Amino acid sequence: MLRYLSTIVVVFSVFSMAVGIVPSGLSPTLVSADEEPVNPVEVQEDLQEGDVQGEAHDKEGPPLGIEEDLVIWSFVTFLLFLLVLGKFAWTPLNEGLKQREIGIRENIAAAETARLSAEKMLADHKQQLASTQDQVKEIIAEAHRDADEVRQKLMAAAQRDVEGLRQRTLEDLERAKNQAIKELFDNMSEQVAIATEHVLGRALQAEDQNRLIDEALAQLPAKG
Hints:
Layout: H1 2-19, H2 40-60, H3 66-200, H4 206-223
Organism: Polystyrenella longa
GO molecular function: proton-transporting ATP synthase activity, rotational mechanism; proton-transporting ATPase activity, rotational mechanism
Protein name: ATP synthase subunit b
């Protein structure tokens, strides 16, 4: 609004100067270079005549006519000029400024929307990246757990196999030992019976054979 009023004042000032609304006392008198020099005596006489005419003019009153009509018509012309300017210049200019302001606001809103969308996309990308990293970490951890579980199962199975093999080996050794001892004692019993029968000239009874075998068994750990 202030810009509009300033424009009106400037236009009015220019228009006033154009139509000649200037006080008559302020109008400069130009002297051509071709004119003859002014005689001071003639100037004095002209001034005296002017004073006389001025006194008569003051008695008759100030002339109201051409200058007042000029001011009125200048004002009316100025109003018409303002109307034409407002219709054909100011209204399109104002409309253009409004459209430009609307366009700027729309561009700002679009830029803000694009910025928010970009920030949202960036946040989603970061979230997806974090989720992917968590999934990768979980897969790696699960693989470690599976590997540990398989290793423990293999170690347990191997330990069971070793324990079973050791147990079977011990059992086989025990059976072989018992078989060897049995064969040894059977052989010893037979040899003792033969030797005794040869020495004593008679066969040993079953009780004597059992007693000799028990004594030999009692002495065997001390020897072994």
